[in-house]
Hints:
Structural class: mainly alpha
Number of helices: 5
Strand content: under 5%
Amino acid sequence: MQTFTDKAVNIIKQIPPGKVMTYGQVAAAAGSPRAARQVTRILHSMSSKHNLPWHRIVNKQGEIALKDEGARTFQIEKLQEEGVELDRSNLIDLARFRFNFSD
């Protein structure tokens, strides 16, 4: 049986270029809808080890959640390179760019 962490890592790996998922969406798909903060921990501690496309995870409003300006700019640039568009407020249209994971 897979742990929540294993499931979340697997889901994050499957987000294709040009698409995003929210922290809560990953948590729900991994079987624990209230574990969005756990997804944050997984991204922080396991992105390098598992080569996760961490830049494809945004908050439920479609915003970049990172506060560090350098990391924030890097995430925006990576998303734009993949064709994800951000509006003037740096919001992503989730209706257009959200990846809907299905097992």
